[in-house]
Amino acid sequence: MEKNKTAILVVDMLNDFVTGALKCDRGLAIVPKTAELLQGARKAGVPVIFCNDAHLKGVDHELELWGDHAIAGTKGAEVIPELKLCEKDYVVPKRRYSGFFHTDLDLLLRELGVDTVILTGLHAHMCVRHTAADAYCLGYRVAVATDATDSFTEEDYVYGIKYLKEVYGAALYTVDELLRAFGV
Ligand code: ZN
To answer: Chain-centre distance of CA 109, in angstroms?
Structure first.
């Protein structure tokens, strides 16, 4: 992995996904490792890009299935405080599962010279998976930080990671392995 061609994509680590409307204990459990990864990435000059649900209330198709969550402009749609969103991070709002669907994420990655994306966040079998699908189809190499990614259940998580590996050739790394690769 060349760290100057790599970016971290943090998917939906938002108040509503961790402690709010769609709260999940397994999401809370990955917060310390995720924070460690982001701190190391920032230190190593690896871009941190938050792919954040920012739904339009009463409009977005997905809300019929999941109920209101991460409504744009609300506290629930903000990055959880523990991840300390900072000025040099990037935020890409999204209205569907994938961080690429009708967003400028591909344009951002191209301009940053990125060819490999490291996925983290929630949920391994849903938004992380859809983001990985589009990354793969657009020609990016896909990797996953396995201990900074999770799902509602162990079963969903194991299935999600297996699918990423088998279908998108995702490389699986722990946060510690990534930090060593970044040289921090
Ligand atoms: Zn959503």
So the answer is: 14
For residue range 60-104, list pLDDT tens digits in order. Answer: 999 999 999 999 999 999 999 999 999 999 999 999 999 999 999
Determine how many CB atoms are found less than 10 A away from the CB of residue 121.
29
Residue 175 has pLDDT above 90, yes or no: yes
Ligand 1 centroid vs 121 CA: distance in angstroms?
A: 13
Question: What residues pack around ion ligand 1 (CB closer than 5 A)?
Answer: 53, 62
C-alpha of residue 55 to centroid of ligand 1, in Å:
7
Number of folded domains that form the chain: 1
The CATH number covering residue 55 comes to 3.40.50.850
Going from the Cα of 65 to the center of ligand 1, the distance in angstroms, rounded, reads 9
DSSP label at residue 56: P
97/100 Cα distance (integer angstroms): 9
Does the pTM of the predicted model rise above 0.90? yes
Please, where are the H alpha helices in the chain? 15-18, 25-29, 31-44, 63-66, 105-111, 127-137, 154-168, 175-182
Range of the domain at 67: 3-182
